[in-house]
Amino acid sequence: MPSTYLLYVACFGALVVFFLWLRDARIFFRTGTAGYRRAAYRGVVYGAVVLAGILVGWYGNEYVAIGLVLLALYLQGRDEREKVWTDEPAFERFFGHVRRSNDKARK
């Protein structure tokens, strides 16, 4: 059982990794770009790394858990992605709201 706050920090990092993975997947499904496809596929691997870190941290080694979470966050941020936003506000970018590639311009 965890004895310090580090496991809670690792769990929050795991939530961030999964959120970013789902955001990349949403952008890929809406745009079909190759960079976000690759990022969404790699997000599955990064999620597995984070879950392994949480499991290791649950059994007492919280420093390894934090290390694995930080490794997953670092690797997830290094993926190359295309620019899909033009003038959207930060709230829409945060949740991955982009125009679909098959949407026509509204008049």
Short synopsis of the structure:
By secondary structure, this protein is mainly alpha-helical.
What do you see in this structure?
The protein has 107 residues and is mainly alpha-helical. It has one domain (13-81, 89-94). Helix content is 68%, strand content 0%. Helix 2 runs antiparallel to helix 3. The mean pLDDT is 84.
Structural class based on helices, strands and sheet pairing: mainly alpha
Largest sheet: none
Question: Roughly what fraction of the amino acids lie in strands?
Answer: under 5%
Q: What overall form do the CA principal axes indicate?
A: elongated
Task: Report low-confidence residues grouped into runs of 5 or more.
Answer: none
- The number of helices is 4
Sketch the topology as an H/E string, one letter per element. Answer: HHHH
How many structurally independent domains?
Answer: 1
Helix content: 55-70%
- C-alpha end-to-end distance: 59 Å
| Number of beta-strand segments | 0
Average predicted local confidence, pLDDT? 84
Gyration radius over CA: 16 Å
Defining traits:
4 helices; 107 residues; mainly alpha
